Amino acid sequence: MPKPSKREDLLASALETFHTRGFHGTGIKEIADAAGAPKGSFYNHFSSKEECAIEALRLFGDERRLDMLAAPGSPPLERIRRHFEFLRDEVVVRDFTRGCMFGNFATDVVDHSEEIRAVVAQSLGTWSSALTAALTEARRDGAVRADLDPDATARFLLNAWEGTLIEARATKSSVAFDTFFLMAFEAVLR
C-alpha cells in the first residue's frame, strides 16, 4: 500500500511557519517537523524553500475571503467593510501578530526573489481587482461619489490597510484599525 502524501501537511505547516516567522526565519526542517514529516520528504513535494513559499502565498490568498467582496444580497460598501473587519479580527485574535503575509513578504523577500515578487504583486492585484469591482458597483449604485476612481481607490485602500497592519502590530492596539475604518468609510468612501 503506498504511503499517503505529506504535501498538504507540509503546505499547511509552511503557511503557518512562514506567516509566523517570515521567509528568512523559516527553515525547511521547521516546516517538516511541524508537519510530522522527515526533512527529506519536503523535497519529494517542493524543489526549494522558495517554491514552497510561493505555494504558501497562494494558499494564504485563498484564505483572504475575497468572495465576500462579490457576495450578492448586501450593498457593496457593506461587503467591503465586512471584508476588512474579517481581516482585522484575524489580527486581533492572534494578539496583533503576523499581519498580512503579502505585506510581510513584500518587505522581506521581494528584493531577493523575482518569483516571489511576481506572486506577491499578482496576489495584491487580484485583491485590488476584487475591491475595484465592488467599488465600481458602489459608484454605479450612487453609494459613493460619481467621480470616485474605483481602481485608484482600491489600491489606496490596500496600501492604507497594509500600513494599518504595521501600526497595529507595532502598538499591539486596535487604534490603527479604528483610524482605518473612520478614514476609509467616513472620508474616502462617503
Describe this structure in words.
This protein has 190 residues and is an all-alpha fold. The model has no long low-confidence stretch (mean pLDDT 94). The protein folds into two domains: 7-58, Arc Repressor Mutant, subunit A; 64-188, Orthogonal Bundle (Tetracycline Repressor, domain 2), CATH 1.10.357.10. The relative contact order is 0.11. The protein has helices spanning 7-21, 28-35, 39-45, 49-62, 76-93, 101-108, 114-140, 150-171, 175-188.
The tally of domains stands at 2
CATH class of the largest domain, named: Mainly Alpha
Total beta-strand segments: 0
Q: Mean pLDDT across all residues, rounded?
A: 94
Helicity, as a percent range: over 70%
- Label the overall shape: elongated
Number of helices: 9
User: Could you tell me the radius of gyration in angstroms?
Assistant: 18 Å
Structural classification: mainly alpha
SSE sequence, one letter per element: HHHHHHHHH
Termini Cα gap: 62 Å
Q: Would you give the CATH topology of the largest domain?
A: Tetracycline Repressor, domain 2
- As residue ranges, the low-confidence spans are none
Q: Largest beta sheet, briefly?
A: none
